[in-house]
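Hi Y.,

Following your request, here is the sequence exactly as I used it, all 153 residues.
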Amino acid sequence: MPTIYLDDFQPGQVRECGQHLVTKEEIVEFATRYDPQTFHTDEAAAQASPYGGLIASGWMTCALAMRMVCDGYLLDAASLGSPGVDQVRWLRPVRPGDVLRMRVTIREVRVSQSKPDRGIVRTGWEMFNQNDELVLTTEGTGMFRRRPVADGA
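Below is the corresponding structure, written out as tokens. Let me know if you'd prefer a different format.
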């Protein structure tokens, strides 16, 4: 049963969504399956790359961000999914040993005109490393149900 509804979001609200320690093994495993560029999969080749060492795929960084947001609040929410994101920016490489944290800022909340039992929440996501350096930003839209009205209320 959801505990977070559209009605619980307010513009300007900030949600911190935990931390994640990035390992070399998960970088290589993800990249081997989904983004097998050598600077994600091969330490020697990555050392000779412009990055000077192994880095995570940006798509892995996005997947980690999604997981952190799910664990931070989305799994407790009356979520109806998302029509998409407007932008994704990888601002700094993510490396083995980085400790990432997520911050989500609510930008806009509005009730649907055609379906008033739900609405839209526009958010800005920011992911930081252990040095408080911004490594990822994205802006997106989520759809959420409104809190049910009790019978007889």
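The helical segments are 24-34, 38-41, 43-47, 58-72.

Thanks again,
Q.
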